[in-house]
Amino acid sequence: MKTLMYLIALFILPMMLLACKKKDTVYTPPAQADIEVIINDIPFSTDQFLRIPFTLKTLEWKKKGLSLRQINVLDDVSKIVLVTYNSGDFPKIFMDPLPANNIMPYDKLYNYYFSIQLPVPFNKVPPVRISNRLVLRDTVNNKDVTIEGGVFTPRYNETPLVIASPVKGTKWMFFNQCTNEYHFYSIIFIDGKLGTGERFAFDNSQTDENFDKFYQGDPTRNSSYFCYRDTLFAVAGGVVVATSDTMTENDGNTHNHLNFKAPIDYAGNYMIINIGNGHYAMYAHCVKGSIMVKAGDQVTEGMPLALLGNSGNSDAPHLHFQIGDSPDFFMCNGLPFVLRKFTKIGEWQNPNNNTPFTYYNIMNEQKMVMSFDE
Fold first, then answer.
1. Which of 259, 273, 349 is closest to 311 using CA atoms?
2. What is the largest CA-CA distance in the chain?
3. Are 188 and 299 contained in the same domain?
4. Distance of CA 80 to the CA centre of its chain
5. Which domain holds residue 358?
6. How many whole angstroms separate alpha carbon 175 and alpha carbon 202?
7. Is residue 14 part of a domain?
């Protein structure tokens, strides 16, 4: 709920209580759902699953003396459990108080929030309707409490954005998109708004011939990484909205240049491109001084834009790439997308599984090693 609404409530509520006292009645606040779906994203396909992403807002169960034991996602028609999360593998749960952050001061929270990507295998019929169940433990009364809700219909009638790859060449791995983990769980709570810009972001890197290393030699040197200074390309035609390329890069895996003064500094040297229809392509961590375009420039798909680097909040050379519905890197709504074409050439640390296969209009699961046409 917005901070402003709480400030208004602080002023109005005492007056309402006084009015109620005069009438000898009791004010009852409106009921709030214990589980509510607040983000229902367009589903997208990978090489293994149809992924259905959504975010839940729930009651603050700890304040009721309850502990979370299990999360179930159900087919709301058949009531079959589609996926279960137990203690130890719960999604990231946001609750008050959030960690202090001087650059991005977070709101106080009055609910719990967490995000799920439901993976539906291709040999299963996707659920028509989905619901959610929390199994909680009442330790005082020594019993389980079950709360159900968060019913929604997946957006099967819509398709995710299709883009070209921002890199070319071979032995690429794209991480942190097709998972419940980082980046997908990221939510920023500021001024009553939810920022999910990183929600479908990926990080990438290149492997060696055996698909088991990302660098050769000294890991504290950027030049040791196979992907360092690779060219980055426009994923679609559009207009450049903003760029910055004056930030000093980190040295390899040292994370040693983090003098951030504003939220956008986390992106390091970056580009934001309006690719139309409310979609903005965002590239982060570029090499200092390497960006070849400026705000206002028109770009075409496949045009060289910059060099892959290690600036900003980066643990090693890589590209951080995301699509949002506005040019605000963090406070936009992150949007799902798929790659128009790529070829699977293997899997991480599994050189024997290397029969090439070309995919169209999907994303990849975590361990895939990919090649893109020049």
1. 259
2. 80
3. yes
4. 27
5. 161-372
6. 5
7. no
360 within 8 A of 174, measured Cβ to Cβ? no
- How does pLDDT run across 163-188, given as a tens digit for each residue? 999 999 999 999 999 999 999 999 99
In this prediction, residue 211 carries a pLDDT of 94
Rg (CA), the chain: 23
179-187: list long-range contacts, CB under 8 Å, 24+ apart. Answer: 179/117, 179/366, 180/91, 180/92, 180/115, 180/116, 180/117, 181/92, 183/322, 183/334, 184/53, 184/115, 184/117, 185/91, 185/92, 185/114, 185/115, 186/334, 187/55, 187/94, 187/113, 187/115
Q: 30: exposed, middle or buried (C-beta count within 10 Å: 0-12, 13-18, 19+)? A: exposed
Here the tokens at position 134 are: 């929390």
The SS3 of residue 191 is coil
* Number of domains making up the chain: 2
pLDDT at 355: 86
| Amino acid 158: pLDDT | 98
Q: Is residue 1 part of a domain?
A: no
What pTM did the predictor assign?
Answer: 0.89
Q: For tokens 């998109």, what's the residue?
A: 177
Structure tokens, 91: 């999604």
Q: 274 and 248 in one domain?
A: yes
Q: Which of 109, 134, 152 is the last residue of a domain?
A: 152
Where does a domain end: 126, 152, 178?
A: 152
Distance between the two ends of the chain, CA-based, in angstroms?
A: 48
SS3 308: strand
Task: Quote the CA–CA distance of 374 and 213 in Å, as a whole number.
Answer: 23
d(CA 192, CA 189): 7
If asked whether residues 51 and 173 sit together in one domain, one would say no
Query: Is the preceding peptide bond at 318 cis, omega within 30 degrees of 0?
Result: no
What are the backbone dihedrals phi and psi of residue 232, each rounded to the nearest 5 degrees, phi first? Answer: -105, 145
CATH of the domain at 38: 2.60.40
